[in-house]
Structure formats: C-alpha cells, structure tokens
Automatic annotation (TrEMBL):
Coiled-coil intervals, chain numbering: none
Record organism: Collinsella acetigenes
Domain of life, source organism: Bacteria
Presence of keyword Transmembrane helix: no
Protein name (Swiss-Prot/TrEMBL): MarR family transcriptional regulator
Length: 156
C-alpha cells in the first residue's frame, strides 16, 4: 500500500470510528431518555446535577457536558418549567448563568432513573473488555484528545 492510500485509510478509520461511536452514544441517549420521557440533553443535566447536590451554574453544566451555554440555558429553562430543576438566584446576581441550579424532588427521581439506565448501558459495554483493556483504551483516548486539543489551538 502506498503512503497516500495508507493515509486515506488511517483518516477514514480514525474519523469513521470516532463519528460512529458518537452516533451510537447519541442514539442510545435518545432511546434511553425517551423511555424516561426526557431528552438526551435532560439526561446530561440530570446526571451532572445529581452528582452535585449543592448545585451547578449553567456555565459549569455546559463545561461538564461539553455543550454550549446557550444549549444548557434552553434545556434548563424547559426543565425548570417542567419542575425538574430550581434556579437559586443569589442576592445581587446580575445573571442567571451565575445562579446555582439544583434538582427538585422530581428531578432527583428522574436522575435516579437516568443513573439506572446509564449503569445498565455501561455494564453491557464494559462486558466486552477486561479492566486492563478498558484502562488502556481510556488512556489512549485521553492521549488522542490531548493531542487534538493541542493541534486545534496551534491552528488559531
């Protein structure tokens, strides 16, 4: 195989596998969240807020879930209207982005349902690998992500 063909195959393998994994994770989030009457974005907010009972700001949620602040803001506004979360406005706060968002009782129950679904999916995925293989995979993915972040910042 010549260099150009090898580079094409590497590019297609790399981007294809990453895109396919992301697509399947998105599909699973959609299916599992629909079973709970939620969206994939709801699941991510419930997950992180469930891990932070003291609350998180919209900006913190956006960073944790790797989505835009605008997307989190829309999701939180709807979840607040539907009674899943409560925004705890602080005295003198000039923006809701800085206010802590906490789960309501309804939100905590939904977060528990989300945790059960997440655990079930992860158990199935993890059954395909040994602990050592999984740790090696995560180390490789962290390394790739680090290099990609470095490259993306060099190009600015």
């Amino acid at each position: 195989m010549d260099t150009a063909s090898r580079d094409e195959a590497r590019f297609e393998d790399f981007t294809g596998l990453i895109a396919a994994i992301n697509k399947e994770v998105t599909r699973i989030k959609s299916v599992e969240s629909a079973k709970l009457g939620l969206t994939g974005a709801d699941i991510m907010c419930l997950y992180y807020l469930g891990k932070h009972p003291q609350g998180m700001t919209g900006a913190e949620l956006a960073r944790a879930a790797s989505v835009t602040r605008a997307a989190v803001s829309r999701t939180l506004a709807r979840m607040e209207r539907e009674g899943f979360v409560e925004v705890q406005a602080e005295q003198g706060a000039t923006t809701r982005y800085r206010a802590a968002v906490v789960l309501t009782e309804r939100g905590r129950k939904s977060a528990q349902g989300a945790d059960i679904a997440i655990t079930r999916v992860l158990d199935e995925v993890y059954a395909a690998q040994s602990d050592e293989e999984r740790e090696q995979m995560y180390a490789s993915l962290r390394s790739v992500l680090g290099r990609l972040r470095m490259i993306s910042r060099e190009d600015r």
